[in-house]
Each structure stands twice: as C-alpha cells, then as structure tokens.
C-alpha cells in the first residue's frame, strides 16, 4: 500500500469514533451501563494498540541517523496521526463518562501534546516518540483482554478464569517493558536531547517538555503495576489465611 493511499487524520478519527459507538451500542449492549463505556474504550483500543506498535516499530526501523533528531518520514507522520486520532477520541470518552478522572485526562492531553508537536510543530524526532509508542502499546492487547475480563469477573466464571490466568503474566510483561526497556530508551533520549544535539531542529522547550511528559508517564505506570503486584500478593495471603481457618 502506498503511503498516499492511507487515510488521513479525519478518517482515522472517524474510524475510531465508529468503533467506539459500535462497541457501546452493539458489542456491549447487554453489559451494565457502569461497564459499557470502559469496555467500549478497550474495544477501540484493540484496534489501536497492536497496530500502532507494529507500525511504529516498522516506521522507526528505517529512520536515518541521528535518529532522535531525524526529520519525520511520511509513514512516521501517518502513524502519529493514527495515534493522535485514537487518543483524541478516547479523551472525549473520558470527558463524557469519567470527567472526574483527572489522571487519565491529563495523561491523554499530555500524550496529545507530544504527538501533535512532533507531527505538526517541529516535524522531527518521530523516531523517539514512535519508539516510546511501540513500547507503550506492545502490552496493549494483553492489557485490554485483562481489563475486559476484569470488568466481568464477578458475573462470569469464564471471565474470572481469564482474569486470574492473565494477571500474573500481564503484570510481569508490563513490568519488564515499563520498568526496564522504557527507562533505558528514555535515558538514551535524555542524553541526546539534554546534550543539545537536537536544538537545531527541535527547540529545547519542546524536547524538555517531551522528557517531562515521558518520565512522569513511565513513573506513574510503574507505580500502577507495583500496586497491582501488591494487590495480588495481598489477595493470595488472604486466600491462604481463609484456607487455614477452614482447616
């Protein structure tokens, strides 16, 4: 497929909006109103996460050196627009259904800032941003299935089995990606940008902003998965105590 034949941003945004509406009004029509919005968001994410990770990995594999300051290629720009469309639609989802979820709203706004400045303002540095996107979305499929199963685990024995089966492997996978590979990649970004090597094409205020957003995002994600590990441990301890009491 030629790059020019790939739909532009409006088509991507329309597509994600339609996927969300399809999920909300058809796929999860029988689910409770409490869970339908989040389930619909996960459904939409299934069509973004893995494709975005694969496209980002493919796009950055041909980036010219120095990679962190290279001009964006047409395909890299397309991948950025693909993700901008997704995060914009998902942001509208949070504003509509979870206006008090300030953390996720702030996350989406910050992510959009990074993508938009990379795509439309400086038009350089997509290698760095898409590298982070690939790392962020490589766990997306597992996370979405885990989340959907978690929403139904108290209503469905199958969902509970899937949730319990995926929890450990998902936490481990997420921990490795966000706790090791992510920080290593961000460290390389920081050394390059803070060293001023990209100042000619990417203003320092932009690169510093990117670094702040990325460091905060990774820190929050590591804290999130750490809390999940703690919850899993406490649940196992609780079940063990219950068995002891029964015996």
TrEMBL record:
Membrane topology classification: Multi-pass membrane protein
Main subcellular location of this protein, as a coarse class: membrane
Pfam families assigned to the protein according to its UniProt record, in alphabetical order: TRAM_LAG1_CLN8
Coiled-coil region(s): none
Keywords from the named record: Membrane, Transmembrane, Transmembrane helix
InterPro entries: At5g14285-like (IPR040327), TLC-dom (IPR006634)
Domain TLC: from-to ranges: 34-242
Transmembrane segments: 6-27, 39-57, 102-122, 128-149, 170-187, 207-230
Protein localization: Membrane
Domain of life: Eukaryota
Cellular component terms (Gene Ontology): membrane
PANTHER family recorded: GLABROUS1 ENHANCER-BINDING PROTEIN-LIKE 2
Name this polypeptide is given: TLC domain-containing protein
């Amino acid at each position: 497929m030629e790059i020019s034949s790939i739909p532009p941003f409006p088509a991507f945004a329309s597509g994600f909006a339609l996927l969300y509406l399809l999920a909300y009004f058809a796929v999860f029509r029988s689910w409770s109103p409490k869970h339908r919005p989040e389930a619909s968001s996960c459904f939409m994410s299934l069509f973004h996460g893995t494709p975005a990770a694969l496209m980002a990995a493919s796009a950055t594999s041909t980036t010219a050196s120095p990679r962190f300051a290279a001009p964006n290629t047409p395909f890299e720009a397309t991948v950025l627009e693909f993700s901008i469309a997704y995060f914009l639609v998902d942001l509208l989802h949070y504003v509509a259904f979870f206006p008090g979820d300030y953390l996720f709203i702030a996350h989406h706004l910050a992510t959009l800032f990074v993508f938009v400045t990379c795509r439309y303002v400086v038009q350089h540095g997509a290698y760095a941003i898409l590298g982070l996107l690939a790392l962020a979305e490589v766990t997306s499929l597992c996370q979405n299935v885990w989340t959907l199963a978690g929403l139904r685990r108290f209503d469905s024995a199958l969902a509970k089995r899937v949730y319990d089966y995926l929890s450990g492997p998902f936490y481990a996978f997420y921990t490795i990606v966000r706790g090791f590979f992510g920080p290593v990649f961000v460290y390389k970004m920081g050394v390059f940008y803070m060293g001023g090597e990209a100042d000619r094409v990417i203003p320092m205020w932009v690169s510093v902003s990117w670094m702040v957003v990325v460091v905060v995002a990774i820190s929050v994600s590591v804290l999130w998965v750490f809390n999940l590990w703690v919850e899993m441990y406490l649940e196992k301890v609780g079940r063990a105590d219950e068995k002891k009491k029964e015996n």
